[in-house]
Amino acid sequence: MNKQLIDQITNAIKSVMPTDQEVYPLHTPKFQGNEWKYMKDCIDSTWVSSVGKYVDQFEKELAAYTGVKRAIAVTNGTAALHLSLIVTGVQPGDEVLIPSLSFVATANAVTYCQATPHFVDCDQKTLGINVKKLFAYLETNTFVKQGQLYNKHTNNRISTIVPMHTFGHPVDMDELLELAKQFDLKVVEDAAEGLGSFYKGKHVGSFGDTAALSFNGNKVITTGGGGAVLTNDETLADRAKHLSTVAKVPHQWEYIHDEIGFNYRMPNINAALGCAQLEQIPLFLEKKRNLAYQYNKVIKSIEGIEFFTEKEHNHSNYWLNAILLDDPDINLRNEIIQRLHKEKILVRPIWKPLNELVMYQNCPRMDLSVSKDLNERIINLPSNVWE
Amino acid sequence: MNKQLIDQITNAIKSVMPTDQEVYPLHTPKFQGNEWKYMKDCIDSTWVSSVGKYVDQFEKELAAYTGVKRAIAVTNGTAALHLSLIVTGVQPGDEVLIPSLSFVATANAVTYCQATPHFVDCDQKTLGINVKKLFAYLETNTFVKQGQLYNKHTNNRISTIVPMHTFGHPVDMDELLELAKQFDLKVVEDAAEGLGSFYKGKHVGSFGDTAALSFNGNKVITTGGGGAVLTNDETLADRAKHLSTVAKVPHQWEYIHDEIGFNYRMPNINAALGCAQLEQIPLFLEKKRNLAYQYNKVIKSIEGIEFFTEKEHNHSNYWLNAILLDDPDINLRNEIIQRLHKEKILVRPIWKPLNELVMYQNCPRMDLSVSKDLNERIINLPSNVWE
Ligand SMILES: Cc1ncc(COP(=O)(O)O)c(C=O)c1O
Ligand SMILES: Cc1ncc(COP(=O)(O)O)c(C=O)c1O
């Protein structure tokens, strides 16, 4: 039974891969635009560091593309999340609601604020936060005091929720914002994987109080390492920028800093790469969506698995393609992965649930059975922009 | 009196500046080597992100140049300090001895560890930690319990001392290491400004348990933004590298992280810049030392001020040149600065003592009168590698 299924899956995926590659990684960056030109301009002008025209240009173009008022370019997505959490008001001792299925940076950023991740279950439909289930959980496990939400069991304030748009697939933001409103939660979108994804026609990261993007080497566009804070709130934007530049107060020559800041500003040389990459985003997205279309076509007919497709209201960047086994079976999942690795197709499972990592295993959580189920079912497929 | 002195200083400094510039900043980077070649190679190979041959090469070459066993390339000097403090064992609640005259990042890095900066006075001779004065202070204000040093007044553990090599001038490391040994302190060198500086023939940053370098745009060499942890201890090096790469445990496909890590790894594209810059370091240092020689020549004859020169046993990179007024006089200092700014010579005072910044004004400290005195006397001069 399993052997036949594994053969079918392997053949289907191989049929989609180009034939001229030695190895098929999940992602490799593509540089076919003005990358050279802009970087050479940086070097020639000697503006490579944290002040420079490409940083400004990259921020303006990012804001325009994602439809927010302000974008602040920073060293990476983790820094963007950290700043987002601070400026929206996360305090030491708070709990922050995050999905149990995410990259570890989502939880780490909470910890950098001396706050505690509070793990929330995921949803079969979106792979993101399971809003309905969370609603019921919050109703019975929290209380409100002076307009603030508290965890009944720990007595800690729950200040913020972090919806993460898994693999680029948008969370149902209407539902999520409704819940946030009901429970007085700030919203920080982890849109690290979401550049080019839209919910009801609006770009992800434009719904929350703030959002974080990533331009790591594996993302839709790359700046080497990089990220951005997105927000429609000028005050939050100014504070995020201030914190990212060591909280230095403008002065002709004095070194005055008015709070504990960070060196999180994106260097100009990396922003130059970003400007060139952003120009190519329509092409990248077209190719990504086309690859997903091809996967879906060959996988649709295989019984026992499903290719994950965008849901109603969503336009996904298909940053990372995924198949789901009909039934949770971690052995079968691993067998499939092993077999594809033999073919040099470097598929991976979804992240281990964050609540299972040693440093997070004692954090508060709701029932996480859907996340566990998804973890035993999901395999991520190469999602490169080939040729 | 003052007017005459200000005229003399202005004329002396102007006489050293090249005549073809519109403005004279403290530093601008120079790219006259293989910068473009290596960066183009990065783009062509698509290895721009945090894995790639230039990161490895840069680390090897840095270690060789500074004479340490291991260098770990990270996003900036602040990240290098943060990791250095963690791996040498700074714990939440600890106090860390740092000079009151430093860039704010030295204190911030301590705070990121949930430790407290404990401010130490500086020395007229080195501009770094005043070791003799600190010795006397520790003798009367600390006690030892189970081989650990404690602050008598706060009862907090004092775990670590951070000598900073101000403007590239080495601290007297023999004295400092003797003190550290006597009081069981770990040593983290803040060598952010010290690339190319040597104490008794050994590169700064090679004396402590760990050290931090910076490759910010204003430093001796630049990677856009960047830094490095230096250490002779393989275990500390491995841990710093592990922490800088999100504490990810090697596995073919599983995402396992075994502690709270960071995204602090230097991207390959920035390391490519670093490799090209490092090749030019002998040239940069020669020019910097030559500029200092010229400053000294024209300033020597002016009564009332002194040009800061390297002390016995030291070979300084003269990263940032400085003059000192004979007597503390903040008004005179500011008048000189103002006058030179009018001439487009963008001189600056040394940093405001960190203990005077709002977020650090309640931190423990010893008498800081020398630092205060130095703050009212020092003016930093343009230290560019011209032409
Ligand atoms: C969901 C998620 N959050 C946060 C991050 C952190 O971004 P970065 O790697 O740029 O720090 C990533 C990407 O790595 C991610 O996938
Ligand atoms: C003394 C000192 N420490 C730390 C730093 C921090 O380095 P970076 O700016 O690369 O984070 C700097 C430089 O900016 C510095 O001068």
Automatic annotation (TrEMBL), chains A, B:
Ordered alphabetically, the record's keywords are: Aminotransferase, Pyridoxal phosphate, Transferase
* Molecular function terms, GO-annotated: pyridoxal phosphate binding; transaminase activity
Q: Where is the active site?
A: K219 (proton acceptor)
Please give the Pfam families that the UniProt record associates with this protein: DegT_DnrJ_EryC1 (PF01041)
One of the GO biological process terms? polysaccharide biosynthetic process
Q: Which InterPro entries match?
A: DegT/StrS_aminotransferase, LegC-like, PyrdxlP-dep_Trfase, PyrdxlP-dep_Trfase_major, PyrdxlP-dep_Trfase_small
Q: Which cofactors is this protein said to need?
A: pyridoxal 5'-phosphate
Which positions carry the signal peptide feature in this UniProt record? none
Post-translational modification N6-(pyridoxal phosphate)lysine, affected residues: K219
Record-stated family: Belongs to the DegT/DnrJ/EryC1 family.
Matches recorded under PANTHER family: BLR5990 PROTEIN, TRANSAMINASE
Instruction: Output this protein's name.
Output: Perosamine synthetase
